[in-house]
Amino acid sequence: MSDALDVRMGEFVRRIGQALGLTLDVEVERIEDGTRVRLAGDGSEVFLQRKAVGLDALQHVVNAAFRREHAGGHIVVDCLDYRKGKDEELRAAAKILAERARDTGESQEIGPLNPYARRIVHLAVADVPEASSESVGDAFMKTVLITPGE
């Protein structure tokens, strides 16, 4: 991942914002497993309406545009740190469910979730000893089944 790619991603998102009549402040930063594109500015909250469906759509478009050049890492698009907070809540819930599955011996379910959210759940469950997870379903939105044992 290069600085030039980061600049291009930021400019791409700015141009999308301009097409929507928004003046976005876009910051691109490296994170542990990829890149985070952070949005702010007047009108940026439009991406957070209706349970952030606009933010999900923007992330899908950015991933589609840059995934080949951004091999090996994930691209996360966030607005006003909305996704960062939701991700932490999802991690905490996944760990609680994994511990419950381990302690009770009963499987737990969370979802339906999009691929981005499922990845967060799988990574959180992987941190809990004697618990495992798998995605079930055949649609874009799937449920994650958290089971005891390995």
Word description of this protein:
The chain is an alpha+beta fold. The protein has two domains: 3-80, K homology (KH) domain (GMP Synthetase, Chain A, domain 3), CATH 3.30.300; 85-148, R3H-like domain (Ribosomal Protein S8, Chain: A, domain 1). 47% of the residues lie in helices and 26% in strands. It has helices spanning 3-19, 49-66, 82-104, 115-126, and strands at 25-31, 34-40, 74-79, 108-113, 131-136, 142-148. Strand 5 (131-136) and strand 6 (142-148) form a beta hairpin. Helix 3 (82-104) packs across helix 4 (115-126). It is elongated, with a radius of gyration of 17 Å. The model has no long low-confidence stretch (mean pLDDT 91).
